Amino acid sequence: MPKKVIAIVGPKGGVGKSTISANLAIAIAASGKKTIAVDLDLGGANLHVILGVRSYEYSLDDFVLKHIKNLESALIETEVPNLKLICGGSKIPDIANMPFQQKLKLIGHISKLDCDVVILDLSAGSAFNVVDFLFIAQIGLLVTTPEVTSLMKAYGFIKTAIFRLLSFHFKTKHAEKFMELLDKAKDVDANPDLNTIEKFLKAAELIDAEHVAAAREKIARFTPNFVINMVASARDVNTGMVIQNLVKQYTNLNAQVILTLPTDESVKRALFKTKPVMLTEPMSPFSIAIKELAYKCLNTI
Ligand SMILES: Nc1ncnc2c1ncn2[C@@H]1O[C@H](COP(=O)(O)OP(=O)(O)OP(=O)(O)O)[C@@H](O)[C@H]1O
Ligand SMILES: [Mg+2]
Questions:
Q1: Distance CA 141, CA 32 (A)
Q2: pLDDT in tens, 81-102
Q3: Protein residues within 5 Å, CB atom, of ion ligand 2
Q4: Overall pTM > 0.90
């Protein structure tokens, strides 16, 4: 059973999720931890390309399609000691469309993988199937760039995650009344009086204060860790504050920006050579930042 599952999410496409997943996996493996990187971006699997893996026999979609019984059969050795990979494949559509039971089976197999750390590279978007993987992870890294569009999507992703968490919680008691209120809160334009999580919880307390107190505890344990990628200037660095304030205002959560990663040409050069940048240029600004991220994931968050 893996001791730590790290889920890399980011609702906007092309913000660097797979690049960070691949290189973080290498940095963690280099610290001596038995690591498995899993490409869960089934529609657009490319983690193997970034890691320089040219061919593979089985991938995750063979598991989903029942060509193989165990997820372990899809494990591929990489050239990095301690690092194995499960490719995403391209035979089935996006994970967003995966039926619930299939997802549960997949989660079950992921949580039985024999290693120290599992890294999950997820697809873009805020589908429940993506959000749910965040809940099985000990560490969720939410990748965004400093662009406003990316920040807004990241904020939307957190809202979706909290709504998902609340809908699971409220299914257990007075479900009908709570779900009705939750549906209203999702439509902020029609119900501005419920436009923050705090306002929703206050209204929900009128249904069952004790049950809402338990929900508050669950929300408080959900700490999104932001990784801001492709930061070019000092002004960009401040975007971390913007997102923290936005999240605080709406959700009352203390999101933390755990790292900013620079825009770095070494990433492009590595892609061109079809080798991960951690191997081609381990001392580039990007690689050094990734090592810091690995240290934080293993030691402080
Ligand atoms: N810090 C960086 N500096 C320069 N280029 C970067 C950096 N991070 C990522 N890139 C480049 O940005 C592009 C998108 O990266 P990547 O594929 O990792 O994003 P993604 O979030 O996984 O995308 P998708 O949502 O499509 O899965 C790639 O060409 C990658 O090389
Ligand atoms: Mg990707």
A1: 21
A2: 999 999 997 777 666 678 888 8
A3: 17-18, 41
A4: yes
